[in-house]
Amino acid sequence: MMIMACSTMLLALGFLWQGGKLARLANNEHPTLVQASAGKSFIALPQAYDYRSPQLLQSTAKDWVMLMFSWGETASNVVPGSIDLTEHESGKIPLSAYKASMLLSDDFRDSFLSLYTANVFTSEAAQGSISSLYVPLQVLPPKEIGTGRWEVEVLGSRYISTPQTPAGKMVPANFKLEMMAAEIPQSPLEEDANASVKAVYQLFESGIRITKVEELPHASR
Predict the structure, then answer these.
(1) Is 33 a residue whose pLDDT tops 50?
(2) pTM value?
(3) Taxonomically, which superkingdom (predicted)?
């Protein structure tokens, strides 16, 4: 009888131990299978809502600067939409820059584009007299400046050509972008969406918005 009682007790303890182990497993966060808008599937590990990987921040910053500061014949084979113009209340801007501006926060976008058309993509550029291609040389690691907020510096040069300088010249152009985590689109992209809508949607998929852009005379780090 004593042996049977001990066996029963050990069996009960074993069940309790297994039950506790299963409970801990059930409470753990598990990887999730995610399907992107392009149809590709990947495994996503659980992260905080406002987490963005350093690689994503760096890639988004580099792509944004290239889209915003490349236009004309020089950039047409490198940056899609850089030769086409579209209307904005601030003036004509490259289609590529218009797409990139969608990543700017709502309270920053109009003021940035006003300065952009006044100082960067001027009427001379809109008339086709100036071409520009941004050449990124280095993207520094993101610096966290708050919860869900970062600074990323993109270091490079603009290759600028004009009728007077058809061979072009390289002009240093370094930028510091302040970025924040933002809502990621939950609705799937419509299958018949045009190329422009797809491009903007892909930018939004990063879950990042740009709240400030500062041009640096040289690398600050």
Answers:
(1) no
(2) 0.75
(3) Bacteria
